[in-house]
Amino acid sequence: MKVFVTGGAGFIGSHACVDLLQANHDVLVYDNLSNSSRKSMNCVKLITNRSLEFVEGDIRDGNLLSKAIADFNPDAVIHFAGLKAVGDSVLDPLSYYEINVQGSVELLKAMNKVRCNVIIFSSSATVYGEAEYLPYDEKHVLNPINPYGQTKWIIEKLLHDWVNSNNHNRAICLRYFNPVGAHESGLIGERPNGTPNNLMPFIAQVAAGQRDELFIFGDDFPTRDGSGERDFVHVSDLSMAHLKALEKIEKLERFEIFNVGSGRGTTVFELIKAFEIAAGVKIKKKVVSRRVGDSARSWADTSRAKKLLNLQSYKTIQRMCEDTWRWQTMNPNGYDLK
After folding, report:
1. Residues of the chain with pLDDT under 70
2. Which of 215, 199, 197, 224 is closest to 296 using CA atoms?
């Protein structure tokens, strides 16, 4: 198949490109490089020994986006592009609605022009909000508590309506939990611009001596060790979910939603301990006050994805830490040294 990948130069997108190319699909990446590097595409080529096309562009740019899609004429789209920091979304909600929601509208308009009827969307477990029960399943009530989660929810509804507008349209929304890790080669991984918003890259930078200490936001949660408990999923398991969705989409209902996680909870302290073992160093840490909106416990019911996508998340927390540390040590400044 010919697959058009928005945000394909980013953390999850680059790993998905590896899986797509290794499965002999043709890939065009469309990315504005706002939180990624074009050098990741060179690394994808090294891993796969295959080429892919690249267009630098913003999903809000309807004219450029339409031209790129028309020239490539894809069979399917995988949509990663968008802003993703919860805290930033509270401070700057307009950018999140403009880029995430309006960008998705422009993407669907461009798809309609070339009659591309298949899309797989990078959604998020933030659409659930506070847990009414655990684990979260796909039937859990949706009540996102920040603008980032709201934009993901709106895009899901947009895709549902788009599917209903044409009997040929199909969409799968993958609700991610907490992606971590890196490709086993150490060639691609997560290196956010500026201060990391996610826990794992922050731990890695503290372990490498690039940051003084790790802040732990609360140790008085009702969990087994007082720290927050989360569902961490290896990025390679997550990227494989997109390939499985692409392979299965014609056999499923025209609009589908799947949780993608490990299906188990790991506390912050447990993750730090696993990373200390992987890196062979002690992580300097400091407990500070809880952040507003942080829940105590969150993990996924992944049974639908296992059954309908044949998706088995199998990499352990220890493996996630080992792969992250390999990426960190091979690329201390991310893609800057390549």
Report:
1. 337-338
2. 224
How far apart, in whole angstroms, are the C-alpha atoms of residue 190 and residue 43? 13
Number of domains in the chain: 1
For this structure, is 148 an active site residue?
yes
Is residue 62 domain-resident?
Answer: yes
**DSSP-derived secondary structure letter, 297:** B
Would you call 194 helix, strand, or coil by DSSP?
coil
Tokens of 307: 């059954």
- Dist CA 187 CA 286 (whole Å): 31
Task: Supply the pLDDT for residue 69.
Answer: 98
The CATH number of residue 29's host domain is 3.40.50.720
Q: Which residue carries 């799947």 as its tokens?
A: 258
* H/E segment holding residue 55: strand 53-56
In angstroms, rounded to a whole number, what is the distance separating the alpha carbons of residues 172 and 182? 24
Given a contact cutoff of 8 angstroms between Cβ atoms, the answer to whether 216 and 288 are in contact is yes
Among the listed residues 30, 96, 148, 335, the single catalytic one is 148
Nearest to 11 by CA among 36, 34, 30: 36
Q: What pLDDT does residue 265 have?
A: 96
